[in-house]
Structures are given as structure tokens and as C-alpha cells.
Amino acid sequence: PMYFFLSNLSLADIGVISTMVTNMIVNIQTHNELISYEGCLTQMSLFLIFICMDYMLLTVMAYDRFVAICHPLHYPVIMNPHLCGFSILVLFLLSLLDSQLHNLMILQITNFKNVEISTFLCDPSLLLNLSCTDTYSNNIDKYFLVAVYGLFPISGILFSYYKNMSSLVRIPSLGGKYKAFSTCGSHLAGVCLFLGTGTAVYLGSAVSHSPRKHAVDSVMYTVVTPMLNPFIYSLGNRDIKRALRRLQRLTV
């Protein structure tokens, strides 16, 4: 199941990078930074789908690690293929719902043309701030979505790792503790990287209004983090380590 979720996480990361980087490459090659209204909404929709999938997959993977460490004998029964496939379907539908709700908010309030945004991404928060109309109700809806799609997954991840650490403490041997922790170390590193850069983007934009800083944080969040995920998860794999050692011997 862990590799099944990792493959879906990789697909979501590819989607996030493709949504951002392809448009950036076109802009650099053509020296044209314009994006159409329809293109902006499309980019925003795809970005929200993939980034939401990314985030919620990390939550499901935290549950997977919880079952593997706290209930190892029941792991094959609980994390069966039907549950894994159904969870991916539910995550996709929730991500699609989040994307369309943001789109609906933007469609209701955007009444501007030829405006400039200070980043390479059509971020819903930036588009809401550009509106000339009262966005109070839309901001309430946005914060509600952040609470539902943000706080609940974080609570699930924190609870799962609280239970994991409680189980790790009770393992008598040091080798057993290391083996159990190694199964969730890569995931924990991925969660910290994703949440750390995401928090820097959204809290940083609220505290500081520097366009350059917001653009740099956005690059870290949307491009660098998905690119680092394959290294984080594969370097913990013994087969990958063995292959790297063989490659190192050949080069030496």
C-alpha cells in the first residue's frame, strides 16, 4: 500500500510541476508574461486539484504508517486493495470539489481586465485581493475551506504520529525502534517539507507584502518541494541505496 500511495503522490507532484513550469517555460521563451482569463482559471483549477491531492495523500500515508506500526499484524487486512483504491477516489473527488468551490468564488467577484499579479501562479488569494467589490463573504468561505481542508488533515497527521511515537517508546530493543522509525522517517520529512513551505507562502504573504519574497516562497512550495519528494522517499529504500553504492563503485 505504501508504494501504491507513493505512485499516486508522484503523479500529483508531476501534475503540480507541469501546471506551473510549462507556463513559465513558455513565458521565458516567448518573452510574454500574459495569461488569458480562461487560462488563469484553468491553471488555478489544476493547481488546486493536484496540490490538494498531494496534501491529503500525505494524510492517508500517515494513517498507513499508523496501521503499520501500531497494528502490524492487522496491516494486510486493514490496508487492503479495495480500501486503498477507494481512498484515492475519495481524495480525488474532494480535491475536485475544493478546486471548483474556489473557481466559483473567483467567477462571482472578478470583474477586472488587464491586471498584474506579482507571481507566476494564479493564486486564488491574490485574485480575491484584486477584486473591487466587497469580498467579505468570499473570505469567510475561503477560511472555511482552509479550516476543513487544512486543519483536519494536519490533526490526523499529528494524531497518527503521536500514536506512532507512543508505540515506538514501548519497543524494547534499539534495533526494533530504528526499524520501526525508518518506515515513517521519509514520510515525516516529506510532511515537514510540504507544510513548512506551504506555511511560509500563506503566512508570509499575510505578514509581508513583498512580491519578490512571495514569488520565491511560491517557487519553493510549488516546484522545489515536489522535485525533492522522489529523493526523500527513494533514499530510504535499501534497493536504491544498494544501486547507488554499485554506481559509486563503478564511477570510482
Keywords:
mainly alpha; 252 residues; globular; Rhopdopsin 7-helix transmembrane proteins; 9 helices; 0% strand
Overall description:
It is a single chain. The chain has 252 residues and is mainly α. The protein has one domain: Rhopdopsin 7-helix transmembrane proteins (Up-down Bundle), CATH 1.20.1070. The chain has nine helices and no strands. The chain has helices at 2-30, 37-70, 75-78, 81-109, 124-130, 136-170, 174-207, 211-234, 238-251. Helix 2 packs parallel to helix 6 (136-170). The longest helix is centred in the middle third of the chain and has 35 residues, at 136-170. The protein starts with a helix and ends with a helix.
Question: Any guess at the CATH architecture?
Answer: Up-down Bundle
CATH class: Mainly Alpha
Low-confidence stretches: none
Quickly count the helices. 9
Fold blueprint:
Elements: H1 2-30, H2 37-70, H3 75-78, H4 81-109, H5 124-130, H6 136-170, H7 174-207, H8 211-234, H9 238-251
Summarize the structure.
The protein is mostly helical and 252 residues long. The protein is built from 9 helices and no strands. The two termini are 37 Å apart.
